[in-house]
Amino acid sequence: MAPFFPSPALALGYGLACVLLAATPGADMALFLSRTLAGGRGQGFAAQAGANAGLVVHSCAAALGLSALLAASAAGYQAVRIAGALYLLWLAVAALRHGTALKVKAGTGAGGLRGAFLNGLLINLTNPKIVIFFVTFLPQFIEARDPHAGAKLFVLGLGFIAITTAVNAVVILVAGRFVAAARANPRALRLFDYAFAALMSAFALRLAFSRGR
Description:
Layout: H1 8-23, H2 27-39, H3 41-72, H4 74-98, H5 112-125, H6 128-137, H7 149-173, H8 175-184, H9 186-209
Helix pairs in contact: 1-7, 1-9, 2-3, 2-5, 3-4, 3-5, 3-6, 3-7, 4-6, 4-9
């Protein structure tokens, strides 16, 4: 196996986490659904393409920044991991307190495919939470002494994008049914909150107790 790929066990755990994170409703999913319902699946996929472009930028920035930090200071890298654990715990508490906010706004599909793409791009490029998430989520899958940390971080970032693309593509294809089901079954969305909170808590503990590796 190439040195920049994670182990099979780690890749499986990471993949499952990405699927759950992608399936948890958020601002990006709400945008995809709004654009799909207003302008058709083409606009939904255009918005998703824009969001993915933003994620590629964040993924590259996180990989370069974290690998540079690791090369400069192992202690600094570990400090980021601990800060990440606290942030993930905060996400877990916020999910339980405030719940999933799937707010699909009515729209007219203004701007067509280009407008939808720009909407998706801007919703990710201007969202500081995505930067923080990449910086806190990815380090727990990399050993502090890993000589291929930068390449692995980049691969993990692209893997996250690939998985979220697949999950959101399904959501876009069944947009009308998905929105109707979500509105008719608020308890189902609440289950996402509990699952998300449990996942973030588990990752936070993993980050906290692996700081010395």
